[in-house]
Amino acid sequence: MDYAVEIHNLAFRHKDGTVALRGVTMKVKKGSKTAILGHNGAGKSTLLFHLNGIYLPQQGSVKILGVEVNRKNEKLVRKMVGLVFQDPDDQVFSPTVWDDVAFGPANFGLPREEIEIRVKEALRAVGMEEFADKMPFHLSYGQRKRVAIAGVLAVKPEILVLDEPHAFLDPKSKENLFDILEKENQEGRTVIIATHDVDFAYEWADEIVVMREGRVLAQGGTEVLCRGEIIKGAGLEFPKVVRFFNRIHGLKVEKAPKTIDEAAELVNKLLKNMPQRD
Question: Which GO terms describe its cellular component (predicted)?
Fold first, then answer.
């Protein structure tokens, strides 16, 4: 099987002595949609920062598409992995939206013609073409988040990584983000997010990684979020759809649905098959 990310026994300690990762071992399938869940301090962001070389392994190893992350190939890794920070203001800093999205391709030495093509494509992908000449600080938070994503897409990474992408977004912006991530994955990109949002992770992802105190507590399909011992151990909540079905006395289903539409379809089917009373 082809893996986008292979991590073995990764450990990391910050300069102040805080241990962030404690022997993390995990793999991410190429072309997958992976959600990393856990409370603040679980090590999610530190783990993501290892995926494009912001942090280098102090112990263990990280491989991206078979290439080991180290000081010699940081630039190559950053072409393969695009990282979108939690706060767009840490990433969006140029005088105009166009300049900001062009920064990455220009930094990698691409010719002007190619940069223009990539900026246009990236802004179209996030629905921000009409804002190309705007100053980023005049945009809403959700719009700045989309500009940050466009800046990463313009580099054309094979792996897209987002740290807490839903933070401080309104419902419409969350919907826009969902559509962007779906589109990028359908076009062949591996997408990895770190999030607190169990409902989004359960509906969107096909692979779940649950972290606690710098360790991987569990990894697998979305059924991981249906397991009480994992939810309790990580201090998370069941997804709303799972909670709903768990609370219906006597109801047995082989697999909890992932979306509201799937839940409604299942309930309607169960009601239809119930014996009718005279």
Answer: ATP-binding cassette (ABC) transporter complex
